[in-house]
Amino acid sequence: MTQIQFTAPTSVKAAVRCLAEGGKNPKVLAGGTDLLVQLRAGRVKPSTIVDIKKIPELKQIKAEKGGFRIGAAVAGAELSAHPGVKKAWPGLVEGFDLIGSTQIQGRASLGGNLCNGSPAADSVPALIAAGATCKIAGPKGTREANVETIVIGPGKTSLKKGEFIVSFFLPKRPRRSGDAYLRLIPRTEMDIAVVGAGVSLSIDSKGVCTDARVSLGAVAPTPLLVKAGAKALIGTKVDDAALAALAAAASAACKPIDDKRGTIVYRTKVAGVLARRAALIALDRAKGK
Amino acid sequence: MAKHHVNTTINGDPVEFLCDTEQTLLDCLRDELGLTGSKEGCSSGDCGACSVTVDGRLVCSCLVLGIEADGCEIGTIEGVANGDELHPLQKHFLKEAALQCGICTPGFIVAAKSMLALNPDPSESEMRYWLAGNLCRCTGYDKIIKAVTNAAAEMRGE
Amino acid sequence: MGKEETQFDKTKPSVNSNGYRVVGTRPIRPDGIEKVTGRANFGADCNLPGMLTGCIVRSPHAHAKILSIDTSKAMKLAGVKAVVTAADFPELSPKHRGAGESPVSFRDMSRNIMARDKALYDGHAVAAVAATTPAIAQAAAALIEVKYKVLPHVLDAREAMKPKAPVLHDDIFTKGVDPKPSKASNVAQRYEFSLGDIDAGFASADVTVEHDFTSQCVHQGYIEPHACVASTTEDGMATVWASSQGQFMVRNYCATVCGMDISKIRVLPAEIGGGFGGKTVVYLEPIAILLSKKSGKPIKIVMNREDVFRATGPTSGGHAWVRIGAKKDGTMVAGELVMEYEAGAFPGSPVHLGCMTGFAPYTIANSKSVGFDVVVNRPKAAAYRAPGAPIAAFAVESAIDILAKKLEMDPIALREKNAAREGTQAAYGPKFQKIGFIETLEAAKNHPHYSIPLGPNQGRGVASGFWFNIGGESSAAVHVNEDGTVDVVTANPDIGGSRASMGIMAAEVLGIDVSRVKPIVADTASSAYSMLTGGSRVTFAVGQAVCLACDQVVAQLCERAAKIWDIEVSDVEWLAGSAVNRKSGKAGSLSLAEIANVAGKTGGPISGQSSSDVQGAGPGFGTHICDVEVDPETGRTTVIRYTAIQDVGTAIHPSYVEGQLQGGAAQGVGWALNEEYIYDDLGRLQNGGFLDYRVPVASDLPMIDTVLVEVPNPNHRFGVRGVGEVPIVPPLAAVANAVSAAAGTRMADLPISPPKLLAAMDAK
Known about the structure:
The complex is a heterotrimer of chains A (289), B (158) and C (764).
Chain A: E1 5-7, H1 12-20, E2 26-29, H2 35-40, E3 48-51, E4 61-64, E5 67-71, H3 76-80, H4 83-88, H5 90-97, H6 102-105, H7 110-115, H8 123-129, E6 133-138, E7 141-146, E8 151-153, E9 156-157, E10 164-170, E11 177-184, E12 195-203, E13 209-217, E14 224-225, H9 227-233, H10 240-253, H11 264-286
Parallel strand pairs in A: 1-3, 2-3
Antiparallel strand pairs in A: 4-5, 5-10, 6-7, 6-10, 8-9, 11-12, 12-13, 13-14
Helix pairs in contact in A: 5-8, 9-10, 10-11
Chain B: E1 4-10, E2 13-19, H1 25-32, E3 51-54, E4 57-60, E5 73-75, H2 88-95, H3 105-118, H4 124-130, H5 142-155
Parallel strand pairs in B: 1-5
Antiparallel strand pairs in B: 1-2, 3-4, 3-5
Chain C: H1 3-6, H2 32-36, E1 52-58, E2 64-70, H3 72-76, E3 80-85, H4 106-113, E4 118-119, E5 125-131, H5 134-143, E6 145-150, H6 157-160, E7 187-195, H7 198-203, E8 207-215, E9 218-219, E10 227-232, E11 238-242, H8 247-258, E12 265-269, H9 285-295, E13 299-302, H10 305-311, E14 314-315, E15 318-326, E16 332-344, H11 351-357, E17 366-375, H12 389-407, H13 411-418, H14 437-446, E18 458-467, E19 472-480, E20 486-490, H15 498-510, E21 517-521, H16 538-565, E22 572-575, E23 578-581, E24 589-591, H17 592-597, H18 599-602, E25 606-614, E26 620-630, E27 637-647, H19 654-673, E28 704-709, H20 731-743, H21 754-762
Parallel strand pairs in C: 1-13, 11-12, 16-17, 20-21, 27-28
Antiparallel strand pairs in C: 1-5, 2-4, 2-6, 3-5, 7-17, 8-15, 9-14, 10-11, 10-13, 15-16, 18-26, 19-20, 19-25, 22-23, 23-24, 26-27
Helix pairs in contact in C: 8-9, 11-12, 12-20, 13-14, 15-16, 19-20
């Protein structure tokens, strides 16, 4: 019977060291809502568990360069209670809030949702649509990366050995911007997304879309940044024709599988539907409705 | 490695226990401390029968390591009643017959109590979404919603 | 605790509008405080000093020959105390069968508890180990080496009936066909129930509808996983603490499977965290007994949620083809039903019950129902709330909906025209006595729900349902205590408020306040035999036993009063909780408490005991109305309104009766929309958890309105009918009819998941 070591460092530097010295398979613990399930099912056998929640930087939300810096271990309930982030990025907050129950929200973190590597993670399309970046700490120091570069396959990330996510940065919002995230689940709660769609856009004073980012979840091995979807919106008034083009681009970007949660045909079609609906909500928000 | 020595507060009382890294808070409550009011229905955070509060925040104790409770304040079903005075939620669960088998009841009461602390006058929809992580297979939720509604009204002094 | 909570509301008039004093009121349940404070002890809450943890090794294959099991490495692990495999269980012959409604084969039960020679489904237990801690037990389980030869598997009933399908058992030769087949197959039995002449019936029909329906295997989904503790001693005695639907069932099954005398096993009932039929069999208890025998220590085994889904009680998935013929005026003249149910790894699906219930709500002169019980590589089906009936009702009630549209008739009016009533000959055998089906239809028609206008993409569905309800062997003892309080001892687990109803009935017969009655659920050493909790029998049959035992108590109380007054007992009458002296010129009365106070001086303890096979259960009928809204672009369905109406005989505690209707409806909605077992190509369960086995959550459902129609059962003291099972019969079709109306296309394949509904709408 081999024992799992446990450590709760209080600084990023110490956490990097714990991970380096944590044996064959050290695992980072933030909210634990994925890790503990995998542990109980015997799917992961960590040598050491490194609890990063005692590091102040990992649990903070603060203003930075007109945007926000959000600690990777901030729980969903904490993010939802932050009025500034909720006002600037309602879609992101809603996307994160969709993950699991109230109980899960008390623990689950943005960093964990991303690093679990699920293509269906609800907060990730919203983060990608928001153009979020993340700060990564590791043996070679810290680096910034775009969120869309992190997940490289189901359960796989581009993080190198000993690296972990410290925080996320959400950029400054131009005036007349809005975002939204929608997902399809069979029930109303407690399910994993069958399809998820995040849209962030900005409009000018005439209502013309000047910038947009579109992201999809659960329709490919990784969450997708759909550039063709953004292109369909930029320069338009987000009218029916633009929305139809967006839906077509979203469906075209899908490379889904048939599994217990949905079919290829279903995911492909519904990705377009949700992208269109999310764009309409984002547009309303950009218009201040 | 030796077991971890955890110092915590449970329902207001100081408690110490020993645990292995992989033991969940639920394991520790039930197996180490004899607090079996929190139930294990799934051990994956999908049923809410093990709901407790950690530093006032509602969580599934099956998704918290026992060692994470070190230095925290834990609230469980065993601490909901005040001595021999039932909490309004407990009274109204009984009055409305909001339980049949009763296995989910501790989790629902802990979860509902935490909701009412933040939102004393929730709408039916707010209640249903807040409690969506608590599965009940017996009641169809109808009488649970009524019980929480009535308890909330009593707690607001109505 | 506050006294007002536990006392009968004294502001009520002495007799209520139903003519009773206590029956029909809503006192706080006697076990309530324990259950809202976390004190109640459920299956997993029992702990004994020196207890070991048992862990089960399960087959990862859907169908495989077990070549060898090597437990040597596991036994060498420090802390491991015992291992058992099928070799430790006695071989039972096929003749070992239980009695009852659906006789169990103990040989099959033994092989389901522990695979012998062959593993027949993903999750089938093949070995078990006991160790000093859960972690060591799990590590030891991983060290048990089982060599398998994987065999081809089959999961679907119709596939399993094909000539080239893999055959699970070489000793199954279809029963119920003539001549008896010479070749083994997966079809365990063919059933047929007929009435009249269906060819002539269909020939006389003006309109005929027919349709094929499919439903998937679903689980009862009780929140409490199976759990037990067993402790044996050197003299061969075993004590078992278990959460089950019958402590005597656990005792008898364990005795047979373990080869023990019944008297050597004592079973103490834990509180039960839901069963719905799924806890009418044993999985862990015999294993725990054998591990305890081998180790000399108490053993606790608790399933995890995945074990529960992989290895316990789903009910059958199945196919149903139905045809109904009717006259232009809506009179149904012929009905035909052909169904194939998946029994799981051993024979015994509830297909015969499906055959018997499908057309039971209707007066159809000519009908034929044929059912096939088919074994497949899934866990052995266990009872689930009105076993077999929901699948049949889904087909028949959907077909009636199709017929109503074809005839341009209101679906309730069509059902009213054909509704079974007193004297109707049911195809499955009996003529109905007094029943309340038509009353439920009238209540549905007149319910405000039925006339609320629908919005865009919304649809309304109606469906009815029937369940037999049963009685059976039941015991109760009633003891009058010295202070006039009364203990009511029964031996069926309180699965949803039965203590409350036993207390109410005893209080009614004795004429005392319900707060003076203490209902007790006894262990097998403390009560006479009582059949398990199933068939919606407890409030009816055990309730009848309570009434009979109370009658004995009343007779004794009158005798004692007569003795005190020195008069003939014929001059004493029991009235409102007191003995009344009817001898002319000598008026007076003695309360139950007054007589109890002096019982020691008038002849000793006063108590009654009743044990009998209670007959005369009243059939139950229900009608449900469901409104849904569908999203035409995503195929998602939202249930927006739901009303469940049922003839409940007499509601003893109306709150718990309403709760049965609401809970049954919720389970039915889950069955209709989202619940299903999903297997991969290798026959391994893909959704063995509450994440992907999607039972309804609070935000999925609206308030569920109920109407309790009360047509008393003439065979019960207070008119009780069983109520727990009927409410899961109508919802499948009620939801499917509503979705079909909203989507404009017939949905005949459950669950109506979003991908399925969107595909159907797109194909329109």
